[in-house]
Design a protein that fits this description.
By secondary structure, the protein is of the alpha/beta class. The chain folds into 2 domains: about 10-35 and about 265-364, Aspartate Aminotransferase, domain 1 (Alpha-Beta Complex); about 45-260, Type I PLP-dependent aspartate aminotransferase-like (Major domain) (Aspartate Aminotransferase, domain 2, 3-Layer(aba) Sandwich), CATH 3.40.640.10. Helices cover about 40% and strands about 15% of the residues. The protein is built from 12 helices and 14 strands. It has helices at about 10-20, 60-70, 80-90, 105-115, 135-140, 165-175, 215, 230-240, 250-260, 260-285, 310-320, 345-364; strands spanning about 25, 75-80, 100-105, 120-125, 145-150, 180-185, 205-210, 225, 290, 300, 305, 325, 325, 335-340. The strands form 4 sheets. The protein has a 7-stranded mixed beta sheet with strand order 2-8-7-6-5-3-4, sandwiched between helices. Strands 10-14-13 form a 3-stranded antiparallel beta sheet, with helices on one face. It has a two-stranded parallel ribbon with strand order 1-12. The radius of gyration is 20 Å and the shape is globular. The model has no long low-confidence stretch (mean pLDDT about 95). The structure holds pyridoxal-5'-phosphate. Pyridoxal-5'-phosphate binds next to helix 3. Pyridoxal-5'-phosphate (PLP) binds near residues 81, 82 and 106.
Amino acid sequence: MSQRIQRPMGSDYLQWAKTQTHARFNLTYSGVPFLPLRELPVSLDDLELSGSGAYGWAPLQQAIADRYRVPVESVVAAAGTSMANHLAMAALLGPGDEVLMEHPTYEPLLAVARYVGATVVPFARRAADGFSVDPDEVARLASPRTRLIVLSNLHNPSGALTDDDTLRALAEIAERVDAHVLVDEVYLDALWEEPPRTSFHLGPRFVVTSSLTKVYGLNGLRCGWILAEPGLAARLWRLNELFSNINAHPAERLSVIAFQHLPSIAARACALLDANGAALNAFYRTRADLEVMEHCHGTVSFPRLREGSVDALCGLLLERYETMVVPGAFFGMEDHFRIALGVAPAVLAEGLNRLGAALGDLAQ
Ligand SMILES: Cc1ncc(COP(=O)(O)O)c(C=O)c1O
């Protein structure tokens, strides 16, 4: 009888996020509110249904390359960071390969690695250490079968930033075993640096994925990309012939327009996240029942409930207070939960009030 490997056929987290998160005070979505089309200066004349660009539409390729100061040959456009991650892992991993992956992590990263047949070896990002990455631990876990080291920067769920020295240390480990380092940077532009930082510049071992989805509120455009050294980028383009083949051309055109207006789109998001970050920190200062690092950047925060069950808290929140957060179980940490900041300030304020009330109920 043939042995069939159990592969995940979906993402439990994404299914939950797509079908269960309808609360009035919804603090689950990790991006900023969607930008409405009317806020982009677009006319019908800017659009076209089809365009030339078998391996990427040149103006969009150039817009991504210019923004991140990378050669255009290193840019592979993909349908969101989701497809970018899938393509990168499908190209770099096969059955029997090992992937060292941060824990906690965004569950679809884990699911994709398993889907392509790789064995996932977790390395811990510990709450007590501010969810930092410990390169010594990664070095201990690396083996000749390691093909990829995967992390998100900023980290989902905690929002922690990994500094360049740590990233370089990971690249050295990858170099020793002939692996790559995949950095999912979908939240990194929320540092608001100009030009934006990317680990792509730290060396040829890095493969970077990102998109305009989260930080800029452009989820519907599906404008994602991979940054990789040109030889790997060419392989990724070839592999994409088996996935989405080409990207939707109207979306490519709208994405170029979005890049042209990114400063004002970013200013909108930055103002919202700054205000909400301050409100969240003020809330945390009143809560001895939560253990959490001060929020300083990004769109999410990941407190630990010191006592009691997060499941019970989430149940109370929904039933009594019409409020939702993401249970830490989706990230493999059942005593934590994730709060997202990308909502209107009034929604966050009321959501936090209600969270406070539910925490009070839980303690009784
Ligand atoms: C770490 C991480 N990567 C990728 C994604 C998906 O990004 P996109 O919407 O660009 O596909 C998410 C969404 O939550 C995420 O948290």
